[in-house]
Amino acid sequence: MKSLFAALCLCIIQIFSAQEEVYANGIFGFEDNTPQKIFTDRSRIRQSPKTDAQIIDSLQANQQILILKKEEAVLKLGERSANWYKISYQKGDKTLQGYIWGGNLCIGYRNKNGYDFLYGISKTINKKDRQFNQDYQQNTASIKVLKNNDLVDEIFFETGSGESLNFGTFSIESSHQLKDVEYTLKASVSGEACGIAGYDQYILFKNKKLIALPQLMNVGDADVYYHSEKFIFPNDKGGIANAFILKMEEMEKDDRDREKKKRASKIYLWDGNAYHLKK
């Protein structure tokens, strides 16, 4: 089944890369007159919405800004496509304005007990599928935790191709309580078309450190097939103390339109500092 997913993703990437018109990823769609935060350190602020425009300033991660207007111009860097935005922001006692590329902004952000958690797409990397002997591009996301604007920790994880960046969410899951874990963060991306994978990344925060759990992937195509993964945490129905469960389910129809289902589960033990797979 994984081979089918890999072949499908490579096919989708090739189809969309052949198109000339560039569309912005949905996760970088921000409304006018709404607050936002900078994700990428030293984000360049330009005099107009284009890459060769004069640089008039740069902003650090966690800087609060106000979206004034979404521009029509779209810039694609690797597997990230985003509009330019006219913004305003404070520096000292001055209110300034300029233009920024939307890919440098947070997908989501949260504040909890003096910590700022930022979620965004960091870069695109080149990867090789050895089974099909093809190259493809893969987005890398990250979560940063800051206190008083100083970086405490940052962790990176993959988020698929640009087609998986139509929707994005970021939350602090208060009901997922593992031993000695301060917060459980959940960062997600997903596409809007059939056959486009979505990814859920859970991150634990403990003693000023971020710990990534195994990434979850969900994908499907109408009634033809699907693959779903989810965690069962303590305080969830069926949760086990000091452990969490990975549940997987797959369905694929054969040439007679009969459903073939496969289910599996894994138990991960948590000792208060790290997790490992139960044998």
Task: Tell me about this structure.
The protein is mainly beta. The chain has one domain (2-277). Helices cover 6% and strands 56% of the residues. It is built from 1 helix and 19 strands. Strands 11, 12, 13, 14, 15, 16, 17, 18 and 19 form a 9-stranded antiparallel β-sheet that branches. It is globular and about 60 Å long. The two termini are 24 Å apart.
For the structure shown, list the relevant keywords.
single chain; 279 residues; mainly beta; four-stranded antiparallel β-sheet; 1 helix; 6% helix; 56% strand; disordered N terminus; signal
Helix-strand sequence: HEEEEEEEEEEEEEEEEEEE
Q: Can you give the mean pLDDT?
A: 89
Helical residue percent band: under 10%
Give the C-alpha Rg.
Answer: 20 Å
Question: End-to-end distance, in Å?
Answer: 24 Å
Counting helices, strands and paired strands, the structural category is mainly beta
Count of DSSP strands? 19
Sketch the major β-sheet: 9 strands, antiparallel
Tell me, briefly, the overall form: globular
Domain tally: 1
